[in-house]
Amino acid sequence: MNPLLRPAILAGALVAASAVLAQSAAPAKVADTSKGKALVDAKGMTLYTFDRDTAGKPACNGQCAQNWPPLMAAGGAAASGDWSVVTRDDGAKQWAYKGKPLYLWVKDTKPGEVTGDGVNNVWHVATP
């Protein structure tokens, strides 16, 4: 094998391995908040569930989704364990935990804030 090709082949293998790991990693993690343990996104922002979602189908669309942005899933995202991917009305993919679609709240401005918990008695901090 040409010794000049080895670094390029190794780099390609590392990129491919990174892509596989990125797709299989959980889309959220657990953090401590003033409400106890909660699921948070990669930036540490609290995730929420919506009581009006049914059977893994997101009910928060349009203006609702402006205030409660969905935790979007990349095109190649795949279900793993308690994590699943649900399809929104517009065809986009959203992460769900134990069948419940996950959302952020626009009024949470710092990691760990939980100001969306209890809004209209239908929004709740997503818990592990």
From TrEMBL:
Pfam families assigned: Lipoprotein_15
Entry annotated with the keyword Signal: yes
Keywords: Signal
Residues in the signal sequence: 1-22
GO annotation terms (biological process): alkane catabolic process
Keyword tRNA processing applies: no
InterPro entries, A to Z: Lipoprotein_repeat, UCP029720
PANTHER family: BLL4220 PROTEIN (PTHR39335:SF1)
Name listed for the protein in its UniProt record: Lipoprotein with Yx(FWY)xxD motif
Species for this entry: Microvirga lotononidis
